[in-house]
Design a protein that fits this description.
The chain has helices at about 5-20, 135, 150-170, 330-345, 375-380, and strands spanning about 5, 25-30, 55-60, 60-65, 70-75, 85-95, 100-110, 120-130, 170-175, 180-185, 185-190, 195, 200-205, 210, 215-230, 230-240, 245-250, 255-265, 270, 275, 315, 325-330, 350, 360, 365-370, 390-395, 445, 455-460, 490, 500, 530-535. The chain has about 525 residues and is mainly β. The strands form ten sheets. A five-stranded antiparallel sheet has the order 1-7-6-2-3. Strands 15, 16, 17, 18 and 19 form a five-stranded antiparallel sheet that branches. It is elongated.
Length: about 525
């Protein structure tokens, strides 16, 4: 973590440097300061908190250098220590001087008390930065030997980013007037802005004064990607001389030097920056290049240059133009598209999906607005229904029906109006039929057997001559009906069991009439397939 060196610490550092003495750091001091705002600047003039606010004091566990101007001290507190909270951390020198201070949000330190409480370990690192810090403190151990070191990984990332920037911006690119040297009220300064030097991005948020040596002089911009703490940051400075070159400093940091400006004896400035008129997003600048470029076919390109010499030069907005020497403009194409669309309004179409395509209604008899769909209303009006009679009209509803082409005066389906419905029916007709001929034939028949029996014969009152009524029973009498009065009845002798033959006259070849019964379903229809019917609006 970073820290602020106190005024007392600065004084001690100056004393040690002046006397050539070593600066010894003795201990960490942790305190819980009521009402402390961790986001507020550290009060560099303040001393240690009161004794009742100090919760823990311990010598540092490790120390190391990050760079010649940066040293780091580390404190480790095990789980056998606690319980207390802290929000103030101080680094104290051997002389008891408070050297540096850092403030943090309230942190908890708990002691491990099984099984009642799980403790925690804490590690706090204190980075102190000032010129010659490593030499003054005598720290000889590289902090990377005991801290997690992501230097190689981060350096690789930084290098790839720098090279990617260089691929885009080249050796040097100053955006518009960024970092341009100017003279203001007799003083020289470098303007605010952004520049890329060998892929290193330099960003000045406000102008910076430049102290020039004796004139005339040439100014250069010295840019490096230098390590600060655990980060690599872009650093820059203005240097002077007739000729400057890239170099590597004693810390192994590469410096890239490019021309900035030259100032003559009279103080007049000549801008030497490699600038580009870029004031916004870079991608928007690619199409803004001006001038002629050897490999750029643009302003002076002709049709013949690109093998389009046969294309006509004339153009027209009229979609009705019929000429191979005239090109249709997009206005003409849009007019043609609109004319085709207008002609389609009112057309019934069938689709093999359940949802109408854009610009189509389901043909389901729905009522729709006369104003919103004025083009369709102009085509079909109230033919299929007047809607509410004022604001809406109805769409056709052919669902579940076969389409029959309008007779339109032919006479096959007379009396029909356009869009009218017609119920189902079967044309009137007579059904006739015959059985298969049986040919001429003579039927045969016989009576059924009656068994053995005798027949009764009744003698009448009168004799055959009709003279008298007297006589013996054996005297012949007239035979009468069995129902009439008679003298006596006699039985005939039995003939035995027998049958009687019946003779039937033959009939000629003939047909027999028959009665047909109803067959079929609830309607008469051919094979068919169902599609979605829609109307274009």
């Amino acid at each position: 973590m970073g820290a602020s060196i106190t005024f007392a610490g600065e004084s001690l550092i100056a004393q040690k440097q002046g006397a050539g003495e070593k600066l010894d750091i003795a201990r960490f001091v942790l305190a819980l300061v009521p009402g402390l705002d961790p986001n507020a600047p550290v009060d560099r003039a303040a001393g240690k908190p009161p004794a009742d606010q100090i919760v823990y004091t311990k010598g540092y566990d490790r120390k190391g250098y990050v760079s010649p101007n940066q040293v780091i001290y580390s404190l480790m507190v095990g789980s056998d220590v606690g319980d207390w909270d802290f929000n103030w951390i101080g680094l104290e020198a051997a002389e008891g001087v408070l050297l540096a201070v850092a403030t943090v949000p309230v942190q908890q330190k708990r002691k491990n008390i099984p099984p009642l409480q799980v403790g925690n370990n804490i590690t706090r690192n204190f980075l102190v930065e000032f010129n010659g810090a490593q030499a003054l403190t005598g720290v000889t151990v590289d902090a990377s030997t005991w801290q997690h070191d992501f230097t190689v990984r981060l350096n690789g990332i930084d290098r790839r980013e720098r090279l990617s920037n260089r691929d885009v911006f080249g050796r040097a690119c100053f955006l518009a007037d960024s970092l341009q040297m100017e003279r203001s009220f007799g003083l020289y300064q470098v303007k605010a802005g952004i520049a890329y030097v060998e892929g290193v991005r330099v960003d000045l948020t406000e102008p910076v004064q430049a102290q020039l040596p004796e004139l005339p002089v040439k100014a250069w911009l010295d840019v490096a990607l230098a390590r600060e703490g655990s980060d690599n940051v872009a650093t820059w400075k203005v240097v002077f001389g007739d000729a400057q070159a890239d170099y590597v400093d004693s810390n192994g940091t590469a410096h890239y030097v490019v021309q900035l400006a030259s100032v003559d004896v009279a103080g007049d400035i000549t801008d030497l920056r490699a600038s580009e008129p870029i004031t916004g997003a870079l991608v928007k600048q690619f199409a803004l290049r001006n001038g002629d470029y050897e490999h750029l076919r643009a302003r002076a390109t002709t049709k013949d240059d690109v093998d389009l010499g046969n294309l006509p030069n004339a153009k027209s907005d009229d979609p009705g133009t019929n000429s191979s020497e005239i090109l249709a403009t997009t206005k003409a194409l849009n007019a043609l598209r609109q004319a085709i669309a207008d002609a389609e309004v009112g057309r019934i179409g069938t689709f093999a999906m359940a949802t109408p395509p854009p610009g189509w209604f389901r043909a389901n008899g729905a009522a729709v607005s006369r104003t919103v769909y004025a083009a369709l209303f102009a085509k079909i009006g109230t033919t299929y229904g007047a809607g509410d009679g004022v604001n809406t009209f109805n769409l056709p509803d052919p669902r579940g029906k076969f389409i029959r082409i309008w007779d339109d005066g032919r006479g096959v389906d007379p009396g029909r109006a356009l869009g009218s419905d017609q119920g189902d029916t079967i044309r009137s007709h007579t059904i006739t039929g015959t059985t298969n001929p049986g040919g001429a034939h003579t039927p045969t028949a016989r009576t059924g057997a009656s068994g053995k029996h005798a027949h009764k014969v009744r003698s009448g009152v009168f004799t055959p001559d009709g003279v008298d009524q007297e006589g013996a029973d054996s005297e012949p009498r007239n035979i009468v009906n069995y129902a009439d009065a008679g003298v006596h009845d006699k039985s005939t002798s039995e003939d035995g069991e027998h049958t009687h033959t019946v003779v039937v006259d033959p009939v000629p070849n003939h047909d027999h009439p028959f009665t047909a019964t109803y067959v079929g379903g609830l309607e008469t229809r051919p094979q068919n397939i169902a599609f979605l019917a829609c109307i274009k609006y």
